[in-house]
């Protein structure tokens, strides 16, 4: 996946959530213990952390920094922070040599960090929409890209539904909701 995919995922997040920033974002985000506000701030944090990994290229751990979104930030401002962090990840991915490796539970390439950024954005947008009472599914093209890169051996089916099932957010046909899961970003 690429920086364009990260930007497309965050554009979709803004399209869906931007019109409802006046709602109460202190409610839980879907099945998460986090609020909608905290979940959106988490997306920004992860996008920035992935950008740092791609540009810093650590081989054995995450770089020791965190993003702090001010507690008084309104939901629209948190979405602006997400967009800013997505811009940093997009730039980092698009300017990195594809052979660059950085740590994410093993060596990961820039495309893997892009895929994780897209996944975090789509999945947590889904969580936030559930918390705010909106009906939404991740876009098919981006879901398929995440599945190809992070979930080798995923079952066949509608990509958004498979992605939600792979990450414990929904049932898939007669398959029960998963209670544990992980993706594989590291290059083997």
Please tag this protein with its features:
6 helices; mainly alpha; single chain; 2 strands; 188 residues; two-stranded antiparallel sheet
- Percent of residues in β-strands: under 5%
Instruction: Give the SSE string.
Output: HHHEEHHH
The tally of strands reads 2
* Helix run count: 6
How many angstroms does the end-to-end distance come to? Answer: 17 Å
Low-pLDDT stretches are none
Helix-and-strand structural type = mainly alpha
Largest sheet: number of strands, sense, barrel closure:
2 strands, antiparallel
Radius of gyration: 16 Å
In one word, what is the shape?
globular
Neighbour order of strands in the largest sheet: 1-2
User: Kindly state the mean pLDDT as a whole number?
Assistant: 97
Helix content: 40-55%
Describe the protein's topology:
Layout: H1 3-17, H2 36-56, H3 75-95, E1 102-103, E2 107-108, H4 110-131, H5 140-150, H6 159-166
Descriptive report:
The structure is a single chain. 52% of the residues lie in helices and 2% in strands. By secondary structure, it is an all-alpha fold. It has a two-stranded antiparallel ribbon with strand order 1-2. It is globular and about 40 Å long. The mean pLDDT is 97.
Summarize the entry for a quick read:
With 188 residues, the chain is mainly alpha-helical. It has six helices and two strands; from the N terminus they run αααββααα.
């Amino acid at each position: 996946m690429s920086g364009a995919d990260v930007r497309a995922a965050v554009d979709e997040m803004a399209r869906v959530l931007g019109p409802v920033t006046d709602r109460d974002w202190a409610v839980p985000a879907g099945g998460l213990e986090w609020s909608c506000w905290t979940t959106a701030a988490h997306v920004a944090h992860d996008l920035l952390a992935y950008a740092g990994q791609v540009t810093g290229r650590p081989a054995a751990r995450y770089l020791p920094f965190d993003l702090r979104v001010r507690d008084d930030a309104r939901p629209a401002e948190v979405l602006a922070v997400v967009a800013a962090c997505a811009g940093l990840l997009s730039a980092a991915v698009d300017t990195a040599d594809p052979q660059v490796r950085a740590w994410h539970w093993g060596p990961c390439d820039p495309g893997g960090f892009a895929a994780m950024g897209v996944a975090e954005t789509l999945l947590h947008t889904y969580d936030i929409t559930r918390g705010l009472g909106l009906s939404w599914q991740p876009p098919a093209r981006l879901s398929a890209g995440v599945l190809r890169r992070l979930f080798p051996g995923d079952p066949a089916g509608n990509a958004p539904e498979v992605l939600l099932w792979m990450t414990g957010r929904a049932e898939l046909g007669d398959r029960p909701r998963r209670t544990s899961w992980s993706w594989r970003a590291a290059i083997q």
